[in-house]
Input
Amino acid sequence: MELVLVMVLLGILSVFALPRFFDLGAYKERGFFDETLNAVRYAQKLAVARGCPVRVRFSSHGYSLHQPQPDCGSSSFASLPDSYPVSSNAESAVSISLSSGANNATFDALGRASRNMTVTVGSRSFGIVQETGFVDPGS
Output
């Protein structure tokens, strides 16, 4: 009797739990969300540490970080060197959408963001607070 009960429970678990473990899309989405969130946090910290603005430019399937070139006073932004973790793998299976019409956020030397925005990566979202530059993973 106990063996039959254990087999029934394992059958029920396998019907509901196993498909979640083998859904690679959910893992890719979560990984890309975490990567994007951490890159935006890095951009904010890099702007404060260098005393120079850093811009995060979003596309529909990725992001990249940029800084004024050749110096902080310049108005033309260029990509940071490859020695920084500053661009995505352009994950085509996961899309990025923004709450505001702009496709970028710029952090100034005090860490403040250029605008309030909500960034949605797949089905997860995080917010950027304009006044403080805080990147809120729970919004």
